[in-house]
Write a structure and sequence with these properties.
Strand order of the largest sheet: 7-6-8-12-13-14
Largest sheet: 6 strands, mixed
Oligomer: single chain
Radius of gyration: 38 Å
């Protein structure tokens, strides 16, 4: 069409002619030819060549505007408007009246040339894409590319860059496009989003367009057998062997002398990530520590490549987060926050394809910070990070489902806090497509199902919807029973399955769920393949389970089941250790070769300083051997958890009082001897778990203050009153009702074994004050046992033959604590024990020397300082010369001839608040490594009392009618109570006996 002054161009052309792709492309490229002159000065006067092109193009876009539906004409409107601005600058009379009136009111109606070209290119791109007109798509890329170069450094650069990306992506579908057009286009789109100012209204639109673009992206491919292929397949399908191969491959590549430094850094960062992923599967802390060490080394090397640096920092953030979750040490959460934040804050990597993954990692840290601090700003930011990551990541990418699931988690957490049901709706909408069918067992389906259970559970609690609660139970049960899922997640879901069932009133369903958790999953959580620290960390992460399960069993009227469940779920590590140390007479009678092999495998599992690989092999050998032994006639129950028929034998020598402390309720299970083995009675207690925790803390504070000579007189009186009030409360609410039900005789005092659970193990039940003012000590000879299994184990081992007792006597004053002035007197008191004796005093009493002495003597007396760590009881220890004797070192010993240990050390029998059900103390560690009888202290005792009590104990043990350690201690305490200086329970009540 030709220019004719005074006429309105394009008004006579048909709709098809106006909207034809060829026409549009010709008009646009005509403008491209004069792109540098699209300014009032460059256009020139009316009638000039440039003016004519601009004038014709302006009316062309006006015609298109009228022919197109409203939803498709936005960029045509922009293009026409900008072009009419140039026409208006030359001669306003040539602009349609309605447009002229608006332009007359705008003093800056003319935009920069790059804006006009961008608008024209955008309109051409959209129309050509719709029409499948390749030439127009390619032409639009040319137009927008010029506009982008001209817009460098201007506020319009991000939006024009994004259009450039869209044009390249569209061009990639054209016949003559360069092969990397799609990748270049997506890179431009990411760059634009990274450069867009915060809060820009176009951000959401661009993100939606990027998501639409990525939706068609095929999955990334990696060479078979490469580390990337192994990890990608593991994340999608699971399989420990894939992770192991990835770790080995990455180590090999990183250590190869031919690997360049930049490649080495990248591979070491990937190795750190792979080790962290393997830790999350297995719980092996050595992998997590190695992960953090690798990543810190990469960052410390000062690598110049920003991508590798950002990846290493992000990986380090989630590694520290994983360690925080396991060990609950605040510095790890602080380190995670720093590292994950640094990974996302570098502008040089904001447009990286890996940026969404780094945002996901930062969101994981923010979500945990929210759980710790309750700061809504953290969870809001996590939701924002994850929403971006989900949209900016191809759905085909292996970790995209994880991003979706984490977004749902963050939305659910925020909904629970704010009561926002719409956030729950959004979370459920995200998860439903990922869940699949009930038969789907992929890792992502299982993770999505687990979170869907949480969303439905939250909905039920917020709205009272019983249907949602029942649906949550179904999801939790599916995960708990899914063998393909990791043990930690299965155990969490089994707990939630039970909790939801109880809220629904489905008691039998809750019993089933808790049975799965306790019998099938808890033992695997802390499997033998893990190191001791890793086992404890995994158990610490889980709230106490056994006591709750026992309460649910009682609610169902199953008293025996309650006792069995307590045994299954308490002292998991102790039970494992005792299995490696028991007598195997029956097995030896059935098969001597298998018995010998079993002993060998047990030695391998107990041996210290083993690598994770060695432990894993030994654990596998153990499991395979146990299955082989169970195939023998008469050994079908070899190494199985104790049944009621076995547990009832614990009362063979006297009653046992198991005191269950749990949030749902507290009660005593009283096992008493009968002709056929033992009877069980159930005694409800009128206390709560909270009451017991409060009194335990009051008592602990009181005895600590009373043991401190610097405590002022008025404070001492207050704490003395609190201590004695606790003992009276203990007698009124727990010990007294137990004795009333058992009705023990008086002369001589009968035996009673106490098996307290939770923080009750910190209180001296034997010193509880009864209604008549007497102490429990006046009524029964008290012993304590961690579990019934440990009591049965101790009884299964015969005492040393007469005349074979030998003593390792240790006395050492070490550590920054008050001097021990009575060590020589205590050694002299122990001399009453007949038989060979080795003495280790002061500098001779090194950890190595003491361990060697324990291996060669049946009896041990250790007088030294003891240290209790209430938050990490496995770090409790005895202080020796030049070092410590720790629980973990004792756990690595097998002492088949050990009989009696007297631990004259503060806190040696005290457990910790953490891992209360594992009953971890120095005294229990001595039992674990072989000692049948152990005497220890619950709190700090005065040094001068030690020789008096020890002398009485050994005098009783040496008597012709030697009554055994429990009676020996009972009589020694009775004698001590007649002493003017030590008749207060602050002194005599601190020392307890544990054993048969």
């Amino acid at each position: 069409m030709e220019y004719e002054e005074g006429a309105a161009p394009w008004s006579a052309e048909s709709r098809d002619e106006v909207l034809a792709g060829r026409t549009h492309c010709n008009v646009a490229m005509a403008l491209h030819e004069v792109r540098d002159r699209l300014t009032p000065e460059g256009v020139g006067p009316v009638g000039s060549e440039v003016f004519v092109r601009v004038y014709m193009a302006a009316y062309y876009y006006l015609a298109r505007y009228f022919h197109l539906p409203e939803a498709k004409r936005e960029w045509d409107r922009h293009a026409g408007w900008f072009l009419f601005g140039l026409v208006h600058a030359a001669d306003p009379r040539l602009v349609p009246e309605a447009i002229r009136e608006v332009l007359d009111q705008h003093t800056q109606a003319v935009v920069p040339a790059y804006e006009t070209v961008h608008a024209v290119g955008s309109a051409l791109l959209l129309s050509s894409e719709r029409d499948g007109f390749d030439e127009g798509v390619l032409a639009s890329a040319v137009l927008v590319a010029w506009a982008r170069e001209e817009a460098r450094g201007t506020p319009s650069e991000p939006s024009i860059t994004f259009t450039m990306g869209s044009a390249l992506v569209a061009a990639a579908r054209c016949k003559d496009a360069p092969p990397d057009s799609r990748e270049e286009g997506i890179r431009h789109m990411r760059e634009a989003l990274a450069a867009l100012p915060a809060g820009d209204p176009f951000h959401a639109l661009m993100l939606t367009e990027l998501r639409r673009t990525l939706a068609g992206q095929p999955p990334a491919t990696h060479p078979d057998g490469s580390p990337e292929a192994e990890i990608t397949t593991y994340i999608r399908d699971g399989g420990r062997e894939r992770l192991d191969r990835a770790v080995d491959l990455l180590r090999t590549i990183a250590d190869a002398p031919t690997t360049g430094e930049q490649e080495r850094s990248r591979r070491r960062a990937e190795l750190g990530q792979a080790l962290r992923i393997r830790f999350e599967l297995t719980g092996e802390l050595a992998d997590l520590d190695a992960s953090i060490a690798e990543l810190e080394a990469v960052l410390a090397a000062g690598i110049p490549d920003p991508e590798t640096r950002a990846s290493a920092s992000s990986f380090l953030g989630v590694a520290h987060l994983a360690r925080y979750i396991q060990l609950q040490e605040p510095p790890d959460l602080e380190a995670a926050t720093r590292a994950a934040g640094d990974a996302c804050d570098d502008p040089a990597t904001a447009a990286s394809p890996a940026h969404p993954q780094r945002l996901t990692n930062r969101a994981s840290v923010l979500t945990m910070r929210y759980r710790v601090t309750g700061d809504l700003a953290d969870i809001d930011r996590a939701v924002g990070d994850l929403a971006f990551a989900v949209q900016a990541t191809p759905p085909s990418q292996h970790d995209h489902p994880v991003m979706v699931i984490k977004l749902a988690v963050a939305l659910e957490e925020r909904a629970v806090r704010t009561g926002d049901v719409e956030s729950l709706d959004a979370a459920e909408k995200l998860l439903r497509p990922l869940v699949g069918t009930p038969t789907d067992t992929g890792r992502h389906q299982l993770l999505a199902r687990m979170e869907l259970g949480d969303v439905l559970f939250a909905r039920a609690r917020m709205t009272g919807d019983a249907t949602a609660l029942a649906a949550a139970i179904d999801q939790y049960e599916a995960i708990a029973r899914a063998s393909a899922q990791d043990i930690r997640s299965r155990l969490i879901c089994a707990r939630r399955w039970a909790t939801a069932a109880l809220e629904l009133g489905a008691l039998e369903v809750a019993r089933t769920a808790l049975g799965v958790a306790l019998a099938e999953l808890l033992p695997e959580l802390a499997g033998r393949a893990l190191g001791r620290e890793s086992q404890e960390a995994r158990l610490r992460e889980q709230p106490p389970l056994a006591t709750t399960v026992a309460t649910v069993s009682l609610m169902a009227g199953e008293t025996r089941e309650a006792l069995v469940r307590l045994e299954q779920g308490r002292g998991v590590l102790l039970a494992q250790a005792l299995q490696l140390r028991g007598r195997q007479d029956e097995l030896r009678a059935a098969s001597r070769p298998l018995a010998d092999r079993f002993e060998q495998v047990c030695d391998e599992l107990v041996a210290p300083h083993r690598s994770p690989e060695e432990r894993r092999k030994a654990a596998g050998d153990f499991d395979a051997l146990v299955e082989k032994i169970r195939a023998l006639p008469g050994t079908e129950d070899f190494q199985r958890p104790p049944t009621w028929e076995k547990l009832r034998k614990a009362a063979a020598h006297g009653p046992v009082a198991v005191i269950n402390v749990s949030p749902p309720g507290c009660f005593a299970l009283l096992l008493t001897p009968t002709a056929d083995g033992g009877a069980l009675d159930h005694l409800p207690l009128k206390v709560t778990a909270g009451d017991i925790a409060t009194h335990a803390e009051t008592f602990r504070t009181a005895v600590a203050a009373l043991a401190d000579p610097s405590t002022p007189g008025p404070e001492r009186y207050r704490h003395d009153v609190a201590m004695k009030a606790t003992l009276r409360w203990l007698g009124t609410h727990i010990a007294g009702p137990v004795l009333d039900r058992l009705r023990p005789g008086h002369q001589p005092p009968p035996r009673l074994w106490w098996c307290p659970t939770g923080v009750l193990s910190l209180l001296p039940l034997h010193a509880a004050v009864l209604e008549d003012g007497a102490y429990v000590h006046d009524r029964v000879v008290s012993s304590y046992v961690p579990t019934l299994g440990s009591l049965l184990h101790a009884r299964s081992r015969p005492a040393p033959e007469p005349g074979r007792a030998s003593l390792a006597a240790v006395a050492v004053d070490a550590g920054p604590y008050p001097r021990l002035h009575s060590l020589d007197a205590e050694l002299a008191a122990a001399s009453a024990l007949q038989g060979p004796r080795d003495t280790l005093r002061d500098t001779d009493a090194t950890p190595e020397a003491v361990r060697a002495a324990l291996r060669t003597h049946t009896h041990a007396h250790l007088a030294c300082h003891g240290v209790r760590d209430p938050d990490a009881p496995s770090r409790s220890r005895l202080l020796l010369h030049g070092g410590e004797l720790t629980l973990r070192e004792l756990a690595a010993e097998r002492l088949p001839d050990a009989e009696f240990a007297y631990l004259s050390a503060c806190h040696s029998a005290a457990t910790g608040e953490e891992l209360a059900d594992e009953v971890l103390s120095v005294a229990s560690a001595f039992q674990l490594c072989g000692y049948r009888h152990v005497i220890g202290s619950l709190w700090t005792v005065t040094d001068a009392m030690g020789p008096l009590l020890a002398g009485e104990v050994y005098r009783n043990l040496a008597a012709p009618d030697a009554p055994g350690p429990a009676h020996a201690l009972h009589r020694a305490v009775a004698a001590l109570r007649t002493h003017d200086d030590y008749n207060d329970p602050l002194f005599w009540a601190s020392v307890v006996h544990s054993g048969p």
